[in-house]
Amino acid sequence: MMVNSTVFKLDSATRSLLESVNTSIAISVIYMIVTVINLVGNGLSMWLLVFRTSPKTPSVIFMINLTLTDLALGVALPFQIAYQLQGFHWTLGTNMCSVMTLVFYTNMYCSILTMMAIAINRYLGVVWPMLFRKMQKKSFAFIGCLFMWGLVLSVLHPLMTTDLTFDIPELRIITCFDVLKKEMLPTEYAWLGFVFSMVFVLFLFPFCVTTFCYVSVIRELGRYAKTSKKKKAVRLAIIVLLVFTLCFAPNNILLLTHIVIKLFYKQSLYMAYKLSLCFSCLNSCLDPFIYYFACKEFRQKLRQIIHLQNLSSSVDSMKMEHKESLHSTHIAFESPEREPL
């Protein structure tokens, strides 16, 4: 929600959200589940990508970049959970509020751009293999990651230069990014430019490029590749597009709609937007599945770990059975059953 800090008036939609205990608990539970899955899945992914995957191809470097943003979100989510459970009352100061908000949005948009980069890399490898060989250098991947971070941070610059906390005396709470000062940007058109750059530059354009790349890869593999390779490409495309449509699309569409109707019609969709922001965090739980289908080395190392665990557990169980067998034989030998007279 946007308000003029000199003439403050809380709209009914935002008030109902801030006063809704059930909504606060529901969002917190989702964040708790996401935090656990995020830290476990991405912690394992980071270990595999950094220490068990070699060589460090551009795709692997992009995946490491994506995992870093996901882990940053996993670390930030407990602060958001505490904020929600305290009734949308922020107690950690303005700087921490800005950091947490920035982590949320950099995770979303860096994830989108990184998935686009992985899609382009796969497209070049399948459709333009000669060009792909020339670009398989780590320097290209590092430059690409730096460009992504630079683009995202430049678009989100207003979030870094504004106090995102807001004191609401009537509710006795201090919000963090739930009520924004309208003077954060100078004019209504500046607000529109800010939101349009987020939605169109950081979401819609990467979504179109990613879709084109995966459709082209599937079509190319359908001509000559084995059925198994085509199936893996289809699964990867489905997972990536699922992340876009379920995690990113609702949030960005609602953000654009909410800002437009708030600026020009004085209406609000903030409750729906807040829920969509919550579900956008689910992308960090689905990213390890992208690594599994996108990186052969990652897939092989994960299978090796699972196989070794299964193998060690089966060996342990065999040892236990053997010990129990020896133990029972020992008892039977020392205490034989007496035959009836």
Verbal overview:
This protein is mainly alpha-helical and 341 residues long. It has one domain: Rhopdopsin 7-helix transmembrane proteins (Up-down Bundle), CATH 1.20.1070. 79% of the residues lie in helices and 4% in strands. It has helices at residues 12-19, 21-52, 58-85, 93-127, 129-135, 138-155, 157-160, 188-224, 227-265, 270-280, 283-294, 296-334, and strands at 2-3, 165-168, 173-176, 180-181. The strands form 2 sheets. A two-stranded parallel ribbon has the order 1-4. Strands 2-3 form a two-stranded antiparallel sheet. Strand 2 and strand 3 (173-176) form a beta hairpin. Helix 2 (21-52) packs parallel to helix 11, helix 3 packs parallel to helix 6 and helix 9 packs antiparallel against helix 11. The longest helix has 39 residues, at 227-265. The chain is globular.
CATH second-level architecture = Up-down Bundle
CATH homologous superfamily annotation: Rhodopsin 7-helix transmembrane proteins
Cα-atom radius of gyration? 26 Å
Q: Strands of the largest sheet, in order across it?
A: 1-4
Low-confidence stretches: 311-341
What summary fits the major beta sheet?
Answer: 2 strands, parallel
Number of helices in the DSSP assignment? 12
CATH topology: Rhopdopsin 7-helix transmembrane proteins
In what range is the share of β-strand residues?
under 5%
How would you spell out the order of helices and strands? EHHHHHHHEEEHHHHH
Number of separate domains: 1
**Structure summary, number of beta strands:** 4
End-to-end C-alpha gap = 93 Å
Q: Helix amount, in percent?
A: over 70%
Shape label? globular
